[in-house]
Specification:
The complex is a heterodimer of chains A (75) and B (947). With 75 residues, chain A is mainly alpha-helical. Chain A has one domain (6-70). Chain A has 4 helices and no strands. The longest helix of chain A has 16 residues, at 6-21. The radius of gyration of chain A is 12 Å and the shape is globular. With 947 residues, chain B is α/β, with parallel strands linked by helices. Among the domains of chain B are: 19-93, Ubiquitin-like (UB roll); 300-373 and 579-747, Rossmann fold, CATH 3.40.50; 375-572, Dimethylsulfoxide Reductase, domain 2 (3-Layer(aba) Sandwich), CATH 3.40.228; 810-937, Beta Barrel (Barwin-like endoglucanases). Chain B is 29% helix and 17% strand. Chain B has an 8-stranded mixed sheet with strand order 15-14-25-26-27-12-13-37, with helices on one face. The chains are: A mainly alpha (75), B alpha/beta (947). At the A-B interface, helix 1, helix 2 and helix 3 of A face helix 22 and helix 24 of B.
Chain lengths: 75, 947
Amino acid sequence: MSGVDTTAKLVRMINQIVRNLLHDKDPVGAVAGHVHAFWSPRMVQQLRAHGSDGLDPVAIAALERLGQDHGHAAG
Amino acid sequence: MGYEPQADFGTPAVTAQTRVSLLIDGRAISVPTGTTVMRAAALAGGSIPKLCATDTLKQFGSCRLCLVEIDGMRGTPASCTTLASEGMVVHTQTSRLEKLRRGVMELYISDHPLDCLTCSANNDCELQDTAAQVGLRDVRYGYQGDNHLGAAPDQSNPYFDFDPSKCIVCSRCVRACDEVQGTFALTIAGRGFESKVSAGVASDDFFSSECVSCGACVAACPTATLNEKAVTAIGKPERAVITTCAYCGVGCTFRAEMRGEQVVRMVPWKDGKANRGHSCVKGRFAWGYARHQDRITTPMIRNAITEPWREVSWDEAISFAASEFKRIAAQHGNNALGGIVSSRCTNEEGFLVQKLVRAGFGTNNVDTCARVCHSPTGYGLKNTFGTSAGTQDFDSVEACDVMLVIGANPTDGHPVFASRMKRRLRQGAKLIVIDPRRTDIVRSPHIEADYHLALRPGTNVAVLTALAHVIVTEGLVDEAFVRDRCDQDEFRDWAEFVADARHSPEFLAPVIGVAAQDLRGAARLFATGGNGAIYYGLGVTEHSQGSSTVMAIANLAMATGNIGRRGVGVNPLRGQNNVQGACDMGSFPHELSGYRHVSDPAARALFEAEWGVPIDPEPGLRIPNMLDAATDGLFKGIYIQGEDILQSDPDTRHVAAGLAAMECVIVQDLFLNETANYAHVFLPGSTFLEKSGTFTNAERRIQMVRKVMEPLNGFEDWQVTQALARAMGLDWNYTHAREIMDEIARLTPTFAGVSFARLDAEGSLQWPVNAAFPDGAPIMHVDGFVRGKGKFVVTDYVPTDERTGPRYPLLLTTGRILSQYNVGAQTRRTENARWHLEDVLEIHPSDAENRGLRDGDWVRLASRAGETTLRAQITDRVAPGVVYTTFHHPTTQANVVTTDNSDWATNCPEYKVTAVQVTPSNGPSQWQLDYDAQSDAARRITATAAE
């Protein structure tokens, strides 16, 4: 094994997305839309299973919005 | 077709609004104003003898063979330097001319070896042809006078010889080096009888000189003075086939000149619209890998990567692969499978791989190596302009007034287009280079960048924002363009953002590492210097903010009104030959061909109707996500066509771990590449010489790849994919690659009008080719953006997480070199290796001195991801604090050092910024030693009789 913590990587990735979409008029919607468009459901599920530890508040809100807008199962 | 040399009209074509009519040997002809008499005569079907003239070079008027008589003019003017004029009456065949020409020819032949029958250029020699054309029968001066017949040949170049005894000093080679290539490596040394062609200074030979082996001089030579070694060894070609180069995104077209099944030479095709008759050392000469002894042409399988390979029949290999994938799907689900297709593959191959993954594996887990190079281009340009592609054709550079080159090294990465850029720069266009390194285009013969902004790696967005700040705050915005063409609200938000004082050059200069006045000067030049064109490469995309940088570039182009006409635009210089095509073909996990998202029901319905299977509406895994899923035990099988992710992708140890965790890795390639060390099935691939298809270059130009020899493995690559698909249960029955293109055209609106028949007839087409653009679109967004209004996107500078510190105080950036290509699998197996035997680490003298390093010392290059060793090259080409290396050699393992940081939007790896330490070393790293041992073991082959 490479020793890579893939969940930690997902946390880093979504926080990075947040930092780059903060200037959008609706950052939460923008992050949710981006994840919906480019992440596989399995990655979203893995991040949801991880919980909110280390996640930017916008990312947490985006994951919630993702479930509401796009039907990704919560939790 | 049979073998005919390319037509030569003597002098270049001219374009003019007006025409003149004249009479040549009684034949009436009308030509554009400015056309020479020589060219007019050729267009009229005649042929005036010539030696120093050729239509790839400006007229020279030296050989005096092309003399003509013109009514009303005194003497016998040279037709190559005399312009046709209205009513002119020209005579090209008179007894006076015949006598003059024969006299000139006598002088040439009196100092030329009479070895035609054994000469490598026999029957393919302009001197020989011209002697016959003028009817030379005798040389009255004899052959005993002073001559050059004893001059020693220079055989130092691996691809061509220089035999000065055969030189007629016509200067075509020197002029080709100057005018076409722009290297100025050749000159005529001496005067009068002592005149001779010289490469570099007196002590140089061709190999040690500045010559870049582009072959322009060889193509221009009218004798055997400069001739390919392959022609000497094999003989004159018997037939020629037009095809497209498989190196880089320029997409040069060549005549593959063949003798039987053997390539004799690749000669740049003058009618090629991407290369306009030019070439580089890779496309021109580095095709020998096709018959290299390392080629694997028999399929192989094994149950575990610890076992040696076992050669098997195609049937057994395909059956084994399909049964393994079916087993994995049954045990772990469809999403445990995926595929990767290389940008080296044709459009048709790429399309079939993604079709196999979507329709056969039942998942969207498909990706292309564009992931690791230009995926941010697709994201950024689609967001801002509406189309994931560059806006211009290459010809557009001829109307450019200011070139902004950012994160690209065109003289090494895209050398043929770089020659055209340099030509325009020599004509007076201005140049701004934004690059941490002093690349060759910054300063080369007759060219010097007006601004070289040697930024700190990772600060592209800060630089572009600072430039935008100047343009907005100094009133340099093209208000009319923005008002007419762009969304006003988004523009205002962006303008307000960039105008903030924290985005001024003065505020950002310490972050960027470039003086504020240089940032301001560059911004003013770009905004006010006329047609401004932005050319960029992987130095833009391979960053944590690669997508933001692409959008910042688009913002800059829109703000200055530099979109929608010749001479301007946003021009991504694509790394590999078919990066554009791979992206177009639906090779990304979230998109079907033509950039339609998989969640789009209408798009899916189209494919579902054609393919007869449902398409997953959710995005699949990207390459790094597949590897992560593999190490998590969730991703078990992968089909990799033409890509060597173990060498090319970042964080090698993680890639190796991901591959090792899979239960079935299928590699389809020419050679047992590094990735194949972890493979269970090896399916031999075919080279671009052995198959039919299309590539799409950086200007969206779709061009034919034509089979010039039979595949050594027995099958074209699309046929292998089809065999695998059939074994997986899909009823595919393509009989030729053209049928795949027909399907692409049916399913992809931007390709609706593309077919092999049209490409054969028209040479090339630039997409979109459809009802709106029936003949394609050389320049996009002419009357409006594809998305409607151009979208300004606020791109805030977010520093990368990759920071220097006490443990890793230097920043590593990586790139490529002229003679090598990507992971080097092809070029390392050619004589190109002589120019670049190993990857070296460029380090600034001050950083080297601090570490006690001397030029050529072994050094240990370490990052938080891993470490490797290589030799140091001390140079001020890099700034203090920055080191640079290439990734062409697997023994170097540069990507052991690069990290898993990536672009926020696309996961394109951050190859260009890695915090490292450099220390003296006395040998290979433990990783290198372990890897070598593992690699040797993994490549063992147990020969068994194949059916």
